[in-house]
């Protein structure tokens, strides 16, 4: 177990606009298509930036299940270092971070594909470059904040989080906060092995700030009690969605295929359970 890097700041300035992006899960081609639709342009240094100075903000789960986890890791390593993007912690990100740290974790539910990608990467580029990329990825994932408080004109206007957050947890740090942000409000496991999730958004009493989240795929973006779900299950054959703030606009691109290898997906189960 190596030194755990310091968590990055959980405050993001939105004065020039922010583009929240839902769960990518290694769908790099769709991600790049979405960036172009949002107006990001590739500079001479290979970094994608918006001409108006907008920031890209990922809701996590950039890896696993899909075909190009390493490309997604490389993208955010570069873009967070350059200040062009940010990302919050997530359940798959936390699992991959611990695996990269040498901890005894079981890679399943698509996380094993990340291991396969790194094995192929080492065959092509050798152990030295692979070790460097693994360390950069470990630091990226471990340093991601549990949630991101988005401020405009010194006012808290939105919160980016992977799976959900209680209003009294906003701005706080504790094991309970991190767990809620990664997994949502989980009340045990059902007989089929799937987590039993409470509908935290339905139970929310406040309407501000806006909470933008993913993790639990819905066929369409879903607004409820001042929350907005933008995980449309791209890796399952759905869509990859971005939310443009302060414009209050949704931009989506369709998945090119169902990359997960599953027929019974969260999208097919939605509304039938």
TrEMBL record:
GO terms for molecular function: phosphatase activity. InterPro entries: Ap4A_hydrolase (IPR050126), Calcineurin-like_PHP (IPR004843), Metallo-depent_PP-like (IPR029052), MPP_PrpE-like (IPR041780). GO terms for cellular component: cytoplasm. SUPFAM superfamilies: Metallo-dependent phosphatases. Pfam families: Metallophos. Residues 19-219 form the Calcineurin-like phosphoesterase domain. Transmembrane segments: none annotated. This is Biotin transporter BioY. It comes from Brevibacillus invocatus.
